[in-house]
Amino acid sequence: MKADALASGLPSGSVGVVTPRAFEITQPLTLDCGRTLPQHTLMVETYGTLNAARSNAVLICHALSGDHHAAGVYAEDDRKPGWWDSAIGPGKPIDTRQFFVVALNNLGGCRGSTGPTTINPETGAAWGPDFPIITVRDWVRSQAMLADTLGIACWAAVVGGSLGGMQVMQWAIDCPTRLRHAIVIAAAPRASAQNIAFNEIARQAIISDPDFHDGRYAALGTKPSRGLKLARMLGHITYLSDDAMRARFGRLLRGGGDGRFSFNYEVEFEVESYLRYQGQSFVDRFDANTYLLMTKAIDYFDPARDYNDDLAAAFAQAQAKFLVIAFDADWRFAPSRSREIVNALVVADRDVSYVVIDSPLGHDDFLMPLPEYHAVLHGYLQRVAGAVGA
Amino acid sequence: MKADALASGLPSGSVGVVTPRAFEITQPLTLDCGRTLPQHTLMVETYGTLNAARSNAVLICHALSGDHHAAGVYAEDDRKPGWWDSAIGPGKPIDTRQFFVVALNNLGGCRGSTGPTTINPETGAAWGPDFPIITVRDWVRSQAMLADTLGIACWAAVVGGSLGGMQVMQWAIDCPTRLRHAIVIAAAPRASAQNIAFNEIARQAIISDPDFHDGRYAALGTKPSRGLKLARMLGHITYLSDDAMRARFGRLLRGGGDGRFSFNYEVEFEVESYLRYQGQSFVDRFDANTYLLMTKAIDYFDPARDYNDDLAAAFAQAQAKFLVIAFDADWRFAPSRSREIVNALVVADRDVSYVVIDSPLGHDDFLMPLPEYHAVLHGYLQRVAGAVGA
Questions:
Q1: What is the pLDDT of residue A257?
Q2: CB burial class (10 A; 0-12, 13-18, 19+) of residue B19?
Q3: Taking the C-alpha atoms of A234, A236, A238 and A244 in order, what is their torsion angle to the nearest 10 degrees?
Q4: Whole-prediction pTM value?
Q5: Are residue A250 and residue A269 in the same domain, yes or no?
Q6: Are A38 and A179 found together in one domain?
Q7: B314 and B374 in one domain?
Q8: Mutating which of B138, B200, B260, B274 best tests the A interface, going by the most A Cβ atoms within 10 A?
Q9: What pLDDT, in 10s, does the model give residues A27-63?
């Protein structure tokens, strides 16, 4: 793969050209909401090779808008690599020369896995709003079925940032014997009232869009673009710190010009231009029903709830060793939220390493190749590799 | 007034039953945008009595959604006093036994002052979106004309919180001889990129509402309720700190019940209920075009801009003494933003007192009767009263 990548002109750390694959999960999945999916499909990409002992598999859990395309490209001239290409590849922190890396589009997603945009076999039409609301626990159940399908009894590590980190914690609690290491990045042990407030406004923006049609927009050949755009713009506010926004945009006027205000409501400041662009490009690639479902999964995530609101009791179930990483400028899931995780793990007498990274951007930094961050990930995963004989 | 209030059963600190009055400003007002209003109307309430020396007048500048009804009630059985009733009245920090207090609805407002909802005399129809975008400097010009009309050459103090505090700063810079004291509360010397981002999303929520009709909704008998509701919900996120939201709402489920999740998108968490209520009640009392205009006034406010981005040079124009108050949990206009004001005032060799108040709520605390806060306001205003012979 590496030689191919070099020969083709791809960067040397790339996993190269990859192809997603659909896995049919034929085992029935009973969801937290009480409904059962008799079968479901998961879109998956894998990088690297599963060793003979089947001990070197790493699961990547994605965040709100992520998918199975975590690394590599879809063609040699594809300029847009997977969403975590900076961390996954030969010689990168999650080194595909050592690990067999599995990335999937979660159940309920909109990139090919069973979800609102796929066909409900019972009706022959797209699920749309009839698709059930999925929880983080449901995702762990579904991902465990995928592991069964792949013949992976125990992950060397389960890794994820943000909502992905919530899945990692749930894995460690619900399937203690099926992962050796849990790498929880830029996450929180539950959504705060403020997190829920942001999610609720995003949902209301979508639901109140007249083109939402109670979620049946696709059948009517439309989509709630205005609402989804607003939802994404709102999300982006929480992905950057105030300081990062100031450093990046300040009060700069777009296009420079003579520096005079326009006295209208057209885009004027650079930050407005950035948000509108981010919002619009998201509308072109994401489904509104999936967005609703993903935000609700965040709001519902609360592993302590199953243990009398005692997070340490929840973590007492876990057997994995933990690496918890926070970013100091992250105000969506601030370091204080990671400390809640770490404190509960310590109370539960679990093995945990905790790192806070100097962060230029805020929450968004979990996707960035910050040297300090990648050094920590790399160092820890070398320990994992040693433990599993990767 | 006090005896009346007691006799009527109103609280003893109330200014009692008040009546707003419309002031016609017949002097032409040339705005920052270049347009000129030949005349305009301002809705005004006053509390207390102007002394013979005309030296005891205090101007109250309102924030984004405020108006001229700052204190008192409209009828003896009116249960909803003015928005700053806690601070204005006999024996209160802004003591109406000493001061003649003037509160107005700003130009561009929607409570009776000339603005998008009033009639444009040139067309005979409501201004709607044709009303010009107003700046903080324009408000100071308009308020100075009101002072002329009232025969007030120099305010004992100009007082305001949030966007109101921005008006106070602009007063001190633009009309240095017309105020003795400037009381700037929970404000910032300019909007940050994050402040602008929140405002922009609020504006986009309104503008993208299909019922907005380029601002001509009133003529069509409708209004962009969905967008205005979202805008207000978003504002409320910034009025409370994350800790305050946690203390107030936590992850409590509305209505208690059996504690099970509903697995739908109806209101479920208490914080969702709060935001929806705040959003809806705002729609019933506020105009969307005014909301757009107010947020743009915040974004445009930048007194340093007129002085080569040197805030100290701007404040060097001022002759007033300053009291700057910040709230430690305020993240909309955090204490660090107030320190920028204070530092520039010190560099400019102005007289300034700076106080940071322990804050349970965040930005919203500028409206609250916190004992420490009101003690500071009261103490400072006693100094003002002494200086002006009130």
A1: 59
A2: exposed
A3: -140
A4: 0.95
A5: yes
A6: yes
A7: yes
A8: B200
A9: 999 999 999 999 999 999 999 999 999 999 999 999 9
